[in-house]
Amino acid sequence: MASSPTTVTITGAGGQIGYALLFRIAAGDMLGSDRPVRLRLLEIPQGMKAAEGAALELQDGAFDLLAGVDITDDPRAAFDGTNIALLVGARPRGPGMERGDLLAANAGIFGPQGAAIGAGAADDIRVVVVGNPANTNALIARAAAPDVPDDRFTALTRLDHNRALGQLAEALDAPVWAIRDVAIWGNHSATQFPDVSHARVGSRLVTEVLAERLGGAEAARAWIDDTFIPRVAKRGAEIIAVRGSSSVASAANATLAHVRDWVLGTRGGWTSAAVVSHGEYGVPEGLVSSYPVTSHDGTYRIVEGLTLSDAARARFEASVAELEDERDAVRALGVL
Ligand code: NAX
Q1: Contact yes or no for 276/288 (Cβ under 8 A)
Q2: Vertex 200, ends 194 and 201: CA angle to 5°?
Q3: Tens digits of per-residue pLDDT, 289-323?
Q4: Is any ligand 1 atom within 6 A of the Cβ of residue 108?
Q5: How remote is the C-alpha of 289 from its chain's centroid?
Q6: Residue with CA nearest ligand 1 atom 10
Q7: pTM higher than 0.85 for the full model?
């Protein structure tokens, strides 16, 4: 077992996703069974009791890898020396809340948290923003930590990626592990573009196999446009309608996978993550957009050189336009 523990800060640790994350991290599902972890739970005062209760249960889990648990409502203390920051806690949209109010409330959370990361986190800090609107919250946190390299700030679109894999596995009657090179482009919202045009099942193009199964290329295209894309993009609403509550275990699972692949590598395959753009595929510099990515040497890298059809590009651009609107609304608040 490695000797010095990795410090992992979880914001909103008293909430639903926090509760689903803590025990799996302590069990080694994120960084591996040879890496001790120290957990830092950041909550607001109203959430402290829930976080304290989770900490009691962590103690009762008697996890070999768990080197300690700290609970705080002070971002500076939460991020001091931390190696991995999972920014889960966010302000949800209340009834009648306008988008500007939502962005302002979240700027008041992610700005100070970004500044605290900039001020005190470890040199190898990696940040994943889960709390919505995740991409723009990551943009806000990143802007507040100008001295931290921008490749350390990401937002979660791995859940969307996994949802796409799940839908394809069902439609192709194939195991998830046989499907590769799926991509989520753009914003973690209903405008996202889940893209199967480069995807393969085994050695064959997914689009070809779908055409065989559905009775032709036209039928395959119709299924992708009218069923697959909207179902993946609106899966969060479907879960709420059926379950009566938003995605929790699948969101936690995706968060762990995002960090695990970031730290340990993707071994050649693609996944999807929202990362800071440097103009790749025409996305304005600085926006936090989802792309197909690979990870090696501890860094997510955008898969470059892919050809997008006109229709694919139009979908991606619509999602990027939404990210620009969100950025402009945040700028109008004087945050960026
Ligand atoms: P909960 O409401 O159960 O938990 C949120 C927790 O965050 C609460 O305990 C609250 O006290 C805490 N919190 C609020 N402000 C805070 C602050 N400034 N500092 C520290 N803690 C703070 O929500 P949950 O179901 O856990 O969802 C958390 C976030 O994930 C939401 O914003 C949700 O929209 C987002 N999601 C993002 C997904 C993604 O794929 N990117 C998917 C799942 C989820 O919808």
Answers
A1: yes
A2: 115
A3: 999 999 999 999 999 999 999 999 999 999 999 99
A4: no
A5: 11
A6: 12
A7: yes
Q: What is the pLDDT of residue 100?
A: 85
A 10 A CB-CB count for 221 gives: 15
CA distance 316 to 333: 26
Q: Which residues of 239-256 are buried (b: 16+ CB within 10 A; e: fewer)?
A: beeeeeeebbebbbbbbb
Determine if the peptide bond prior to 133 is cis (ω within 30°).
yes
Q: Report the candidate in 180, 216, 251, 209 with the shortest Cα–Cα distance to residue 24.
A: 251
Per-residue model confidence (pLDDT) at position 1: 57
Does the CB atom of residue 251 touch ligand 1 within 6 A?
A: yes
Give CA–CA dist 56/273, Å, rounded.
33
Let me know the angle formed at the C-alpha of 298 by 155 and 81, rounded to the nearest 5 degrees: 75
Evaluate if residue 162 carries a pLDDT over 80.
Answer: yes
Query: How far apart are the C-alpha atoms of 266 and 183, rounded to whole Å?
Result: 14
- Domains parsed from the chain with CATH numbers: 6-155 (3.40.50.720), 158-328 (3.90.110.10)
Tokens of 265: 């590598």
**CA atoms of 155 and 176, how far apart (whole Å):** 23
Ligand 1 atom with the shortest distance to the CA of 155: 41
Atom of ligand 1 nearest to the CA of 46: 11
Residues 193-220 pLDDT 10s: 999 999 999 999 999 999 999 999 999 9
Rounded CA gap, 151 and 141, in Å?
Answer: 13
The backbone torsions φ and ψ at residue 166, rounded to the nearest 5 degrees and listed phi first, read -65, -40
Rg of the chain (C-alpha set):
20
220-243 pLDDT, tens per residue? Answer: 999 999 999 999 999 999 999 999
